[in-house]
UniProtKB/TrEMBL annotation:
It holds the Pfam family AhpC-TSA. Coiled coil: none annotated. CDD domains: PRX_like1 (cd02969). It comes from Candidatus Methylopumilus turicensis. This is Thioredoxin domain-containing protein. Residues 9-165 form the Thioredoxin domain. GO terms for molecular function: antioxidant activity; oxidoreductase activity.
């Protein structure tokens, strides 16, 4: 496992479109997912310890954002041949087990991860209502620690609340950290 940090936010960069199958049995595009106040595109996977450490809190925070008009989508782009724990059937199991309230999509060709220049899992792309990038930072300051800190920052949640309220993300952002995307 290699820990990587994605680059900082490229403010105003437009979200590339996609059409990917979801664990719910339907295909999803960017237009289907855009929220009234924004969209959070998350590159995650099943086996990454950084993702595993935040799953429950992620589900809660995405429910909060949905109430504010910000939708969310999770995309898994890992090579499922060499990382079978990230395959579509396991994605369905994880989405059910953690009660994902957002679509969980498979990017089998890895074209979407490449279009977004995704680097790691998790890698967060927070867009405003015009689908302009406003946040590319970490979830919180907890890292892989499975025991939540009482005073953990909520970087992603607070940033997307700001995006929902103003259309702009915070100027100060700390890069996410996670496992490298498993390229074919």
């Amino acid at each position: 496992m290699v820990s990587l940090n994605p680059p900082v936010c490229d403010f105003g960069w437009k979200a590339p479109n996609f059409n990917l199958p979801g664990v719910d049995g339907r295909n999803w595009s960017l237009d289907d997912l855009a929220g009234e106040k924004g969209l959070l595109v998350m590159f995650i996977c099943n086996h990454c310890p950084y993702v595993q450490a935040i799953r429950e809190r992620l589900v809660d925070d995405m429910a909060t954002l949905k109430l504010l008009g910000v939708n969310a989508v999770a995309i898994s782009s890992n090579d499922v041949v060499n990382y079978p724990q990230d395959n579509f059937e396991r994605m369905k199991e994880v989405a059910r087990a953690f009660n994902f309230g957002f679509p969980y999509l498979l990017d089998k060709s890895q074209a979407v991860a490449r279009a977004y220049d995704a680097v790691c899992t998790p890698d967060f792309f927070g867009f405003n209502k015009n689908l302009e990038l406003q946040y590319r930072g970490r979830f919180d300051d907890q890292g892989r620690d499975l025991t939540p800190k009482a005073n953990a920052t909520k970087d992603l949640l607070e940033a997307m609340k700001l995006v929902a309220a103003t259309g702009d993300g915070p100027t100060a952002q700390i890069a996410s950290i996670g496992c490298s995307i498993k390229w074919k």
